Amino acid sequence: MEIIKKPILTEKASLLTEKLNRYAFKVDHRANKIQIKLAIEEMFGITVVAVNTAVVAGKAKSRHTKAGFVSGRAPKYKKAIITVKDGETIDFYTTL
Questions:
Q1: Which of 54, 34, 51, 44 lies closest to 91, judged by CA?
Q2: Which tens digits make up the pLDDT trace of 57-95?
């Protein structure tokens, strides 16, 4: 099971990084906080202070096509917010 899927690189996530030394990741929905912490520490070689998780509900999507009105949902996913020890950082562009 691949626990860490990809980092979340949005404006809101970058504000967390700048102000609070926190990073956001999309993770496997079956992973718990302990597994996420161990995977981050192993992948980036840093000390994780805290892990907060949330299941993000998928948005309802709809569009008009030649065939008519099509509606569906974007998939839900689990998000992990990682708090890193003061003085340590993760550089996504050189490590991944």
A1: 44
A2: 999 999 999 989 999 999 999 999 999 999 999 887 775
Instruction: Please tell me the distance from the alpha carbon of residue 48 to that of residue 10, in angstroms, as a whole number.
Output: 21
- In whole angstroms, give the CA distance from residue 11 to residue 50: 21
Beta-strand runs (E) in 1-92: 4-7, 22-27, 48-56, 60-65, 68-73, 77-84
**pTM for this model (two decimals):** 0.85
Tokens of 36: 């996420």
Asked whether 41 and 48 are in contact (CB, 8 A), the reply is yes
Is 57 domain-assigned? yes
Q: How many domains, the chain?
A: 1
